[in-house]
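Please supply some protein, with C-alpha cells.
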Amino acid sequence: MGDEFKNKTTVSRRGFLSGAAVLGAGAALAGLAGCAGGQEAKPSAGNEPAQGEEPTAKSDITIEKYWEVAPDPISDDQISETIDCDIVVCGAGIAGLPGAAFAAEQGANVHVLEKAGTWGTARLCTCGFNAKCQVDNDITYDRDKFITDVWKITNGSQGRMSSYGKWFDNSAPYIDWLQTVFQSKGYDIVPQQVTGFKVTNDGVGQVGANEFWATYAAMIYFVDKDGKTLADGVNIDWTGILAEYAADNGATFHYNTPAVQLVRDESGRAISVIGENESGEYVKLNASKGILLACGDMGGDREMMGYFNPSLLKTRSIAEVKNTGDGQKMGMWIGADMDDFAAGDLFPFVAVDTNGERPEAKDSKSYAAVANLPVFMVDTTGRRLMPEDLPFQACSIPKITATADGSAWSVWDSAWQAKFPESYPKGDYLSMNTPEQLEIDIKNGITVQADTLEELVEQMGVDPEIFNEQLERYHGFCAAGKDLDFYKNPLWLTTIDTPPFYASRHVVSITSTRGGLRNDEHCRVLDKEGMPIPGLYAAGNTAGSFYGNVYPPNIMGSGIGHGQCFSWISAKDMLGIEYI
C-alpha cells in the first residue's frame, strides 16, 4: 500500500506507534479516542463531558485509519487474464490449505492465490477434540465444560460461545478427514499425550502445575514415514503434503501472486478476486461458489497491529513479516466489519542481553537456561510481576500489559538444582535447563552472574530499593510456604541466598496476531450491519469472532486447530455439504 493512503489518516500514527514511542502507545491511543471528526482534542481534567455537553457516543468517534482506505478499483482493461472457477482460496498456508484440499477432493474447480513463492510454513501441531486418534487412546474432552471454560478464559469478549461449540463439534470429523489424507500419503497423526512430548513451560506434566492449564492439551502431532514425531525432533512439512494433496485433486496454485482486491456485484455478492502476479500483471478469478480469505495475520503491519492491540507492540520477532493484514484490508475495502481488538500468539521467555538484543551465537537457545522455570521474576523496576508458575501464553500477558517495556528478569542462585523439584523440565527445542547451558548463556551475555545480590542488581539495572523490598517479601512467603501475593505453588517457592547469583532478561515473541474479519456461524464474513456478505468466507488469522484480547493459554494449538477446521467448514458451506 502506497504512502498516498497513509497520508489520508486524520492523525499520523507512524511516529508514536514505532521506536521509542512504543511505550506510550496505550496513552496515545487513549488520546486519539477523544478526537472526533479529525478535530483537535481539548485538554480536560478528567473523562467527564464539559458542562452542557452530552457524552460522546462510540459511534460518533472518528479515527481514520489508512488500512481502511480503499484503493482505486482495478478496471477490466487492466486485467491481463480472467479465470472462471468454483472456489478461490486466498492463502496457501495452514488455514487455506484444508479448505482448498477438501474442495478439490470433492471435484470443485479450485484456484489458490499465494503471496509467497511456496506454501506456508508448517507449525508444530494441529488441535481438535474427540477425534478417532484421541478416542482410540482413551483421550476425551467434555463439550459443555470446554465451551464454558473458554468463555470464562476470554472474558466472554468478542468470541461467540456458539463458535467454540462449532469448533468442538466439527473438529473430530475434520481431524479424522485429515488423518485419512496423511495416511494416503504414507504419513499419520498422533495425540501429543501418546508421544510424551512436552513443550517448555506449557504446564502439561510440569511438576507443581495446576491441572487447569492442561485440561485442553489437545495438540495433535504429525508422524513421518518412519514413525517419528516431534518427540523425536521431527516435524514433517505437513503444509506441503496438504498442498500436494490439493494439487493431486486438481487444485491450481498461483504462487508469487497475492490477492489485492475483491469485487462485489450489484446484488452485493463477492464474486471475484484480483491477484497480481510476479510480472506485475493483474489476474481476475471469478468464483461461482465462494471466496475464502485465509491470508494470515496482520503482525507484519505494526501500525495496524498496534491499533487493534497496543500491548502487542511490546513484543518482538514477528514470525511472518509478509503477513500484513491483506485479507482483513481487502474485506474492509468492500464493507466487511472487523473485530474491535486482536490477541497475539506469544512465546514468553525469549532471551535477550542486558541491552535487549537477541543473541547471535549459534550455541544459544531461544530461552535461557533456568530463566524459563518458575523462579523469582521481576520487571525492569525490580517489582515482582506474576505467579511465576503460570504456563506458556498465560505468563506472556502480564509482561506486555503490566510492564513499561514488555521485558522481565528471572533471578535464581547457584543452589537451584538442589532447591527445585527433582522432575523440573530439563528443556526441549526452545530451552536446555542444564548447568552446561547456563555457562554458555553467561558467555553469550544473556545471563549475568554476581557474587552478591547488590552486584547482581547493579548489572540488572533495576531499582535496588524496590528489588530488595520485593525479594524480602518473597522470602517471607518461602518461609511460610504460602505466596500471599500471587499464590504460586509452594514447590517453586525457593529462596535466593546461595552465591553466586544469576539473572537473565527475557521478552515476549509473537508469531502471529489473532483477530480479523467478523463472521457468522457458517464462517461467512459480516458487513458493518452484521449481515453476511454472500460468497465471502474467512478462516485462520484473517478471521475474527473467536478470540478476545488474549489467546486462551490452556488450549494450545487453538489457532491452528480452529483455523483449519473453519476452512474445511467454509469449503463445505460453499459446496452445500452438511456439517455439524
